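Example (one chain per record):
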Amino acid sequence: IMNETGLDRINISTTAEIINCIKLKNGKISTNMGIPKINWEEIPLSKECDTASLPIDGNPVATSMGNPHCTFFVDNLNNFSISEIGKKTEIHPLFPKRTNVQIAQVIDLETIKVKVWERGSGETLASGSSACAVTFAARRLNLIKDSIKIILDGGFVNVQCRNDGIWLSGNIKYVFSGKISSSFFDELE
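Predicted structure:
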């Protein structure tokens, strides 16, 4: 949209909120992914519990970025299988709407390596909402600074915790274009 309009700032209206996007001087895009939710009912969880230490083996952290996330912090990613952990955690009874799952290894105060399991899709190379959920969860546990690099199998992004939300910044690539028939919208009414 920025390329088409020549604008360096745009707002995208979603059913949940308006998302602010800014083109940075280095050509990357920074997007405000919103303010995370940590209340058990907003994630949602099936029962009240401490969302910073869920009653699941490994005591993961639950966060909502508009979709539910469950983050396990581990000492070494190589010792864990995202497929095994993701499959069973996605459908855990604590998550009535299922959940996205991340295994995260804090490298230092400014870097985290992450493996991602997306609900309904399985293991993925990257996820913006997962990168934000991991960053916020790590910040809640005082494991990192406010601005960090998230390394995913598909590349890396920068994430910053700010008062106005979690800002995700990274490279962009043109993937595809398409047209939606106006009759599609008629069917939604």
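Caption: Residues 138 and 144 are 6 Å apart (CA to CA).
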